């Protein structure tokens, strides 16, 4: 997770000075670097030692180091000048056309940013790992598991054995995997090692299973222990949003690119497989729309 997301999580979960300080920082994100510790302590009705403890809660040595990291992150996010509001893409006054246009803009900007975050070498390595794996198992909570189901189906269509696990059976399945298999773990935050799906990472590491993580930016538990990490566009807040519009669009695009790259490794064979299977399994499908009809 990025630092601003960790602060939001603290605001949501804590009921002490961390909430007060966190709320102030999130509400004044562009101004924080211009305030002194005394000013922030006064405006939050806390103290300088409390601010230092707040910084150390996020693993920074002191307040100065914390504010430097936060200001750098704010600058990194603001420099792209994206128009879409990723958390509240429309308000209660929006009509149908505005909702359509705003969500279309959000989707296009999310895909462009996700594409810019993809490392070509990491995508190549990820596709090679899946291509060589006996079984690819996808770990993720809902709604990530739904996106994983679509990816699983695509893999199965080119005869790459894949399955999506759930929280109840994940431990059993993880323990059955070997270094000849592959785990794809989808988690926006990538933290909380005691919860699913991160709690299965230790089992996968014990069995030397290659781990491809699809996770948000910044350091997190999942990224630390993954063989390869593919980056979700991480502009959404953890809680204060209408839906996971941008996150789901980003994950879907990553999985589609990963499947497309995998498909390209054996392009002619995979294409012929798809055509032959479609003829066999879908030969009875009919359409009156000539643009999509085919002679099978």
UniProtKB/TrEMBL annotation:
CDD domains: SIS_RpiR. Residues 1-77 form the HTH rpiR-type domain. GO terms for biological process: carbohydrate derivative metabolic process. It holds the Pfam family HTH_6. Residues 126-268 form the SIS domain. GO terms for molecular function: carbohydrate derivative binding; DNA binding; DNA-binding transcription factor activity. Gene3D superfamilies: Glucose-6-phosphate isomerase like protein, domain 1, Winged helix-like DNA-binding domain superfamily/Winged helix DNA-binding domain. Keywords: DNA-binding, Transcription, Transcription regulation. Transmembrane segments: none annotated. This is Transcriptional regulator, RpiR family. It comes from Dellaglioa algida DSM 15638.
